[in-house]
Each structure stands twice: as structure tokens, then as C-alpha cells.
């Protein structure tokens, strides 16, 4: 088992957020390929494949193979292989699940604090005829943000689950 750690950066999350890039990574894990081969296999334009490969190269998941041939081959790096390796998927899964859980817990906490905050009067002086003009929930914005964060947290967890399921399904399929 390789003891190299995978550092999950914003760029890496951006790269892994595309199903096409994940498919390209899996294809390069089988063998090195050219842009033309990937374009034919995925049925997308060469320019689109080139853009995906540039992002993946920048994230350190793939690398161009130095060669004297006319065609430029790309292959998966050790970091890219570690992402797809079943023995390394458990720590990544735990980290992603923990991150998603903490995001969701923070969102719920912000929502609860905002929702149950004490109401404050708009003004402290009584109106003519007595009474106060009404109450304002000062944390209405916080409540709205809490609800949005809660929804975002749920969506992040769903996306992470789908990525995890995608990695698992492809690692079980024979090459």
C-alpha cells in the first residue's frame, strides 16, 4: 500500500467535480492515451478534451508523456492513481464525509441560533396611544443564510456520495 497522502485542495475538488474528468482519469488509469483517442471514446470535441486535460495536469492528476512521436500521450500520475485505488479510498471517504458533516452541523447551528434569537423592538419609545410599534427579528438575514447553508450542506453531501459511489463502482468493474 502506498503511504503517500492525497491533499484535497480547492483545485482538486474543482477537477473532481466533473463526471467527464473522472471518466478521463479512469481511462488513463487503464493505459496512456492521446487527445484523439479520448475524444473518440468519450464522443466529445478534441478542444474540450484538451481543456479537461489541462485542468487535470494543473491539479497533478495526469501528466503528458515525454516522447519523440508525433502524438502527445497522457498518463495518470501517482496522485491520480491513489485517488482511484480501492485501498486508499477509505481515508478519502472518511475525510470527505467528515468535512460534509461538519459543514452541515455548522449550518444547522447557525440556523438554530438565528431562529431562536431574542426579538428586539424596532424602537424603544412608545407610540401615541400606547404600546410599541412592533418587533423585528434582527437575525432574519442570518436565518436566511442558515437555511441556504443547510441546503448547500445537503447538496454537498449528496454530491460527495455520488462521487464515492462512482469511484467504488468503477474500481469493482474488470478492466
From TrEMBL:
PROSITE patterns recorded: HTH_ARSR_2 (PS50987)
Name this polypeptide is given: Putative transcriptional regulator
Annotated signal peptide: none
Keywords recorded for this protein, A-Z: DNA-binding, Membrane, Transcription, Transcription regulation, Transmembrane, Transmembrane helix
One GO molecular-function entry: DNA binding
InterPro entries per the UniProt record, alphabetical: ArsR-like_HTH (IPR011991), HTH_ArsR_DNA-bd_dom (IPR001845), HTH_MetalResp_TranReg (IPR051081), WH-like_DNA-bd_sf (IPR036388), WH_DNA-bd_sf (IPR036390)
Domain of life from the UniProt record: Archaea
Transmembrane parts of this sequence: 94-116, 136-158
CDD domains listed in its UniProt record: HTH_ARSR
Amino acid at each position: 500500500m502506498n503511504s503517500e497522502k492525497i491533499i484535497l485542495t480547492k483545485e482538486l475538488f474543482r477537477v473532481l467535480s466533473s463526471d467527464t474528468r473522472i471518466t478521463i482519469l479512469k481511462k488513463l488509469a487503464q493505459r496512456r492515451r492521446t487527445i484523439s483517442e479520448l475524444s473518440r471514446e468519450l464522443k466529445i470535441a478534441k478542444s474540450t478534451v484538451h481543456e479537461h486535460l489541462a485542468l487535470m495536469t494543473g491539479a497533478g492528476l495526469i501528466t503528458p508523456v515525454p516522447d519523440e512521436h508525433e502524438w502527445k500521450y497522457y498518463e495518470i500520475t501517482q496522485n491520480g492513481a491513489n485517488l482511484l485505488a480501492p485501498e486508499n479510498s477509505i481515508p478519502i471517504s472518511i475525510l470527505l464525509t467528515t468535512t460534509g458533516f461538519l459543514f452541515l452541523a455548522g449550518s444547522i447551528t447557525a440556523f438554530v441560533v438565528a431562529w431562536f434569537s431574542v426579538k428586539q423592538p424596532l424602537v424603544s419609545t412608545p407610540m401615541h396611544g400606547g404600546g410599541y410599534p412592533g418587533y423585528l427579528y434582527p437575525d432574519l438575514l442570518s436565518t436566511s443564510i442558515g437555511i441556504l447553508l443547510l441546503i448547500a450542506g445537503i447538496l454537498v453531501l449528496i454530491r460527495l456520495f455520488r462521487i464515492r459511489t462512482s469511484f467504488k463502482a468503477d474500481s469493482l468493474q474488470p478492466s
